[in-house]
Write a structure and sequence with these properties.
Helix content: over 70%
Distance between the termini: 41 Å
Radius of gyration: 18 Å
Largest sheet: none
Shape: globular
Structural class: mainly alpha
Number of strands: 0
Strand content: under 5%
Number of helices: 8
Length: 161
């Protein structure tokens, strides 16, 4: 990547994405999760909402493949993304079932406003076919997941030492 483009990306990550992730990780949900105080009920809610979000993403990828079938690069991009995400709904459901949710809970689940807004914004970027918006959305999500994963791994290492 050219230095100019790399500088812009580094600036966006440093000035926008990282501060947003830091604020997100300080919300009660994540602080309670890190401290082991998050209730089973809230974990069940996460499993249901994450399941719904990922099912919607798969449908969005399928729609975008059809919409962009005339553009081989965009078609391949959405095919790749769909392949990457295809098992995520199953993982969320498997987790939910392991913490006492039932199949009918998933069949009857409704998205809460905040999750629906996030899903809508993500799919909006997909439908626009905007590479920058898609990458920014993915970068924000992956940055948050990486940070939580790193904190979780550090906590596990400290409890086994």
């Amino acid at each position: 990547m050219e230095n100019g483009k790399s500088g812009i990306v580094d600036s966006v990550v440093k000035e926008i994405i990282q501060p947003g992730v830091n604020r997100l990780m300080e919300l009660p949900y994540f602080t309670e999760l890190r401290s082991g105080k998050l209730s089973t009920k809230r974990l069940q809610g996460w499993a249901l909402q994450h399941y719904l979000h990922n099912v919607a993403l798969l449908k969005g990828f399928a729609l975008c493949m059809v919409k962009n079938s005339h553009d081989p690069d965009l078609f391949k991009y959405f095919l790749y993304q769909m392949n990457e995400e295809q098992y995520h709904p199953d993982l969320a459901k498997k987790f939910g079932l392991a913490i006492d949710l039932q199949e009918e809970d998933f069949a009857n689940a409704m998205p809460i406003f905040e999750c629906l807004s996030h899903t809508a914004k993500t799919i909006h970027g997909m439908l626009l076919g905007s590479a920058s918006e898609n990458r920014a959305s993915a970068l924000v999500n992956e940055t948050m997941v990486c940070r939580y994963s790193e904190e979780h791994m550090a906590r596990c290492a400290n409890t086994t030492a």
